[in-house]
Write a structure and sequence with these properties.
Order of helices and strands: EEEEHH
Mean pLDDT: 86
Structural class: alpha+beta
Number of domains: 1
Oligomer: single chain
Strand order of the largest sheet: 1-2
Shape: globular
Number of helices: 2
Length: 72
């Protein structure tokens, strides 16, 4: 499977970093390289990519795919 990336944006300092997402797991914590804050998912999200990323994590993308295909 092809590697996927997302741009994580820190809600505290606005620092943005391009991060590689695991294809089969969720990332629960991420340390901001700008301010050092420990980012955790927002309530209801499975990981930091779903809360602060430019795209959701691959497991969430996979769950959303059937809905997208049915809409066309």
């Amino acid at each position: 499977m092809e590697e996927q990336r997302s741009i994580l944006t820190c809600p505290l300092c606005g620092h943005r970093s391009v991060e590689t997402m695991p294809v089969d797991a969720c990332v629960w914590v991420h340390e901001c390289r700008g301010c050092g804050a420990t980012l955790k998912p927002k309530q209801g999200d499975c990981c930091v990519f779903c809360s602060y990323g430019s795209v959701p994590c691959p497991p969430v993308q996979a769950r959303m795919a059937p809905m997208c295909c049915q809409a066309t």
